[in-house]
Amino acid sequence: MCGRFALSAKTSSIEALVPGLHIHEDLEPRYNIAPTQNIAAVTGADPTVPAHLRWGLIPSWAKDKNIAVKMINARAETLGEKPAFRNLLKRRRCLIFADGYYEWRKYEGQKRKIPFYFKMKSGEPFTFAGLWDVWKNNEQGLFDDFEDGTAPVISSATNITTSPNELTSKFHNRMPAIILPTDRELWLSDEEDINYISESLRPYPEEEMETYEVSSIVNNAFNDNAACTVPFNTI
DNA sequence: CCAGACGTTGTT
DNA sequence: GTCTGG
DNA sequence: CCAGACGTTGTT
DNA sequence: GTCTGG
Predict the structure, then answer these.
(1) What is the per-residue pLDDT across A190-212, written as a single tens digit (0 to 9) for each?
(2) Is A207 helix (H, G, I), strand (E, B) or coil?
(3) Residue A20 lies in domain
(4) Secondary structure of A88-113 in the HEC alphabet?
(5) Fewer CB within 10 Å: N-end or C-end of chain A?
């Protein structure tokens, strides 16, 4: 899975995740990052510069950018076989910055599903494994924006999923592939052995993670994507 | 050769 | 673009 | 992923 | 129920 996540860490702690990375601008804290929105990432092309990628992969060959809604996730197990992902796995890997992600649980008799927030016990941000590509619109001028404000050239990304660790498996049968700190350099490298690369797409050790139910008061802020400092309730 | 797909998740 | 199915 | 819409015509 | 927008 992984259809929503958060990134509110200080710029300095995000920079600390990738050697040489320098983030020039201040990133707004975000607690409800959704598909089609921009996400903060670094690509293997230049890991010293932050990349702002649109979440939902639009492959370079796509005629219609709306294919993105179907490409927010990519299964780690089959990346090497899928025509849409195989080449990207070889040459267009990226790390997506996050400090938590959400899974939903529905309680018996309750209408709404409740979000649970998954994070590192350390509180530090981390990196999802992603693939990215650049798409150029062929049907209209390259200098004309779309009506929805998106550009005619879009760099986008998909978030790789893998089997869940023990903690996440209580909520879902998938979890986002979180790259171990020691594997980040490899993931951004120009290594083309996809079997070797794929070894870093394992479920993240659950002993380093924890989850909280997002309380109703936080839920409001969550829905508004507003800044939120209220502590989550522990389950 | 050309034509057509290219994807995941959750839910039923 | 690249792979699969016909 | 969730939230929210889901429609057209004519008139101003 | 299903699609769209974020």
Answers:
(1) 999 999 999 999 999 999 999 98
(2) helix
(3) 5-234
(4) HHHHCEEEEEECEEEEEEECCCCCCE
(5) C
Chain E bases closer than 7 A to any CB of the protein:
4-6
The number of domains in chain A is 1
- Establish whether the CB of A83 is closer than 7 Å to any nucleic acid atom in strand C: yes
Question: Which residues in A97-135 are b (16+ Cβ under 10 Å) and which e?
Answer: bbbbbbbeeeeeeeeeebbbbbbbeeeebbbbbbbbbeb
Q: Which nucleotides of D are covered by protein (CB under 7 A)?
A: 1-4
Enter the pTM of the model: 0.91
The dihedral sign for the CA sequence A138, A58, A63, A34: negative
**Catalytic annotation present for A228:** no
Whole-number mean pLDDT of chain A?
A: 87
Query: Which is the catalytic residue, given A2, A15, A94, A228?
Result: A2
**Nearest nucleotide, C1' to the C-alpha of A148?**
E5
A197: its two tokens: 């690369």
Residues 6 or more apart whose Cβ sits within 8 Å of residue A191: A197
